[in-house]
Amino acid sequence: MSIRSNVFVPAIVLVAQICVAQTAGTSWEEKFRAIPSAEKQREYMKRLTARPHHLGSAYNKENADWMVSLFKSWGLDARLESFDVLFPSPKERMVELVAPKRFTAKLQEPPVAKDPTSNQHDEQLPTYNAYSADGDVTATLVYVNYGIPADYEQLERMGISVKGCIVLARYGASWRGIKPKLAAEKGAIGCIIYSDPREDGYYQGEVFPDGAYRNRDGVQRGSVMDMPLYPGDPLTPGIGATKEAQRLPMDQVQTFTKIPVLPISYGDAQPLLEALTGPVAPGSWRGALPLTYHIGPGPAKVRLKVKSNWDIKTIYNVLVTIRGSEFPDEWIIRGNHRDAWVNGAQDPISGMVAVMEELRALSELMKQGWRPKRTVIYAGWDGEEEGLLGSTEWVEAHADELKQKAVLYINTDSNSRGYLGMSGSHTLEKFINGVAKEIIDPVKNISTWKRSQLQRIGTGSSEERQEARTRSDLRISALGSGSDYTAFIDHLGIASLNIGFGGESGGGIYHSIYDDFYWYTTFGDHDFAYGRALAQTGGTTVLRMADADLLPFDFMNFAETVRKYSEELKRLLKTAQEEVRERNRQIAEGVFSATADPRMPLIPPSVEEVAPHLNFAPLDNAIDLLTRSADRYDKAIRNFKQGELSSSVLKGVNAKLIQSERKLTHPDGLPGRPWFKHLIYAPGFYTGYGVKTIPGVREAIEQEKWEEAEREIVRVSKVLVGKSDLIQEAAAMLEGPEK
To answer: Any idea where the domains of the chain sit in the sequence?
Structure first.
């Protein structure tokens, strides 16, 4: 590993040199990275995507059994673990324009002659949104752009209400479940979501089958469960959905939508948009269809009907355990989901086949005598698409054991060509940067780390370019939700990573029947070169963590990142104060709006109260303490020498490191959503997937809940102090009794 002479050697590199990359360890890593095969991944994908394999389908169970049999043939301890979950599937669907003229949406994706699995109509799930409320409503239509909070603020300024209406929102800008959630809060009685060609259709490139992008009949299926409250089986929040589990009555479930919702194609959406009149939509609201985008209300009137079968179905997680030789009660967990909405080559099988090759490569190492020091658990999760069901139920069912034993969860979801994406707990930022420097990009023949660095220098903001040039580690993103890491990090406080390649294989087949083997081998990672690179990356991450004598956690980057989040909160508050002062000034001067389209009616706003001062001193003090603790631990690692500490002391240090992420959780969870217990990372209440950092404070400021913001500052400060105390204890143990 090359280090520039003007960069101070990070402590994590020393840990890797001293504790991980011993002669045998380095040899095992090199041997491992030579094993994964692109051709085998192609074979796995062809088998797994041959037929639709959604939750509850016959082929989904066949795939699970086949995977277990295959893993056992490699000499691995493989098994299925099942849960019983609520899974609605559509019985009746209708979107019909009833005025000023009649049009009935097709709500169906036609097969494509070139695509041999797109004609499996009898096995395909219809186009729908899972966990939509049942309903049959007819009302005036209103176009609401993406249907996010800023869009409704714009509508209010224009004097347009959606109360009693059906809203038409386009996919994008937030997770789909936020769109019906907000619409219902604003008084709408139905929601239709369509894919505009601007986002992933002909505006971006040639459409399928001639290109990678969504054609006029392509539809994005997807769950609209209110996952910012809690993911997983709606009937068993907080507990595993075993046969014996006590389940909520249907009328007490909070995560169903309050109104019916259906997804449609842009072919079906165009007549609805053409039937709208009223104000012309602002420029940022206009898609790429050949029409003038009006908002309404009306004169378009639409009938929307949704009726589902609300059945309990069995899901099957595929699990493989490689028992640790020295620390069997310390677990490294690696996962990818295996279920899909239809055939699911890109999402999720492109990631699953890389994980399978990791397992095969590890089994080959075992035949050569390798055994991990820590227990390694591989998982192929079921039911992810409907709401992270398989991973959430497994985590909830094994929560007590996981709290004690889980070191790390490593997630992938899908994979493509391009750059290595790295996100997760910032205590692992240095560690995953070190892994990225060992993996060679299959096209550019430089490390994946160097390629990502060059991308940031070439396309990032000025701050990102500067950081990429001067910072020893590339900054990783924080985790929100949207994949199987959610229950691990957000609920239990288990340090987590999410990895995968992408950025160079644009497409528009997400959650459609066209996400299949033909599309992926034509427009995706066609030669599986980046699938092999992902297997090398994930497996190296597992090996390095499983065989480390001292777990390679680092707290310097974490402390720096939390300070950055704190500064963002202060700027957010300042911006809110300045915006209110400016609006009040305009009101005083008779200037009512400078943001609305001049052709639109303007509603004079009322004077607002300026946001009060918030006391950030507890947070500032906690971050200062965290920084000092991190610095002490960093120095202790630099002075640490292999063999100076007894195995019992080293095990004690690792035990504290395992608990370090747990220290960032609070048993009461976040305000209004106690399932989410991590106080530094969480999905936003109105973003769904997108992360909100220090979410209790951030969302209180955004929602102008000032007393709550003050309380959350204190709560976050306390968990940071608790984490600092643990870091100090770990440092003292490394320093030895003389300190």
So the answer is: 556-735
Instruction: For residue 683, say if its preceding peptide bond is cis, omega within 30 degrees of 0.
Output: no
Judge: domain 556-735, CATH 1.20.930.40: yes
Alpha-carbon gap, residue 686 to 321, rounded angstroms = 38
Cα 587 from chain centroid? 42
pLDDT digits (tens, 9 = 90+) for 190-211: 999 999 999 999 999 999 999 9
Amino acid present at 483? S
| DSSP letters spanning 362-400 | HHHHHHTT---SEEEEEEEESSHHHHSHHHHHHHHHTHH
Whether the predicted pLDDT of 23 surpasses 60? no
Q: Annotate 554-593 with three-state secondary structure.
A: CCHHHHHHHHHHHHHHHHHHHHHHHHHHHHHHHHHHCCCC
Neighbours of 35 (CB within 10 A): 19
Beta strands 77-99; 301-322: pairing state? antiparallel
Decide if pLDDT at 258 tops 50: yes
The answer to whether 182 touches 145, Cβ cutoff 8 Å, is: no
Q: What is the pTM of this model?
A: 0.93
Cα separation of 3 and 24, whole Å? 22
How far from the centroid of its chain's Cα atoms is residue 482's Cα? 3
Q: Which of 556, 112, 498, 548 is nearest to 334 (CA)?
A: 498
Name the least confident of 426-435, 608-617, 642-651: 642-651
Instruction: Give DSSP secondary structure letters for 131-162.
Output: TPPPEEEEEEEEE-TT-SHHHHHHHHHTT---
CA–CA dist 184, 178 (Å, integer): 10
Structure tokens at 715: 């709560």
Contact 199, 656 (CB under 8 A): no
pLDDT digits 0-9 by tens, 144-169:
999 999 999 999 999 999 999 999 99
Amino acid identity for residue 615 in this structure: N
Q: Check if the beta carbon of residue 588 is closer than 8 Å to that of residue 604.
A: no
Cα–chain center distance at 700 = 22
In tens, the pLDDT along 597-610 reads 444 445 556 767 77
| Cα–Cα distance measured from residue 60 to residue 418, given in angstroms and rounded to the nearest whole number | 30
The rounded mean pLDDT for the chain is 93
Spatial separation of the C-alpha atoms in residues 71 and 74, rounded to whole Å: 5
d(CA 99, CA 140): 9
**Cis ω before 228 (30° cut-off from 0):** no
Answer whether residue 487 shows pLDDT above 70: yes
* pLDDT of res. 602: 52
Q: Would you state the structure tokens that stand for residue 424, as one six-digit string?
A: 């997760």
User: How far is it, in rounded angstroms, from Cα 533 to Cα 460?
Assistant: 24
Radius of gyration of the chain (CA): 26
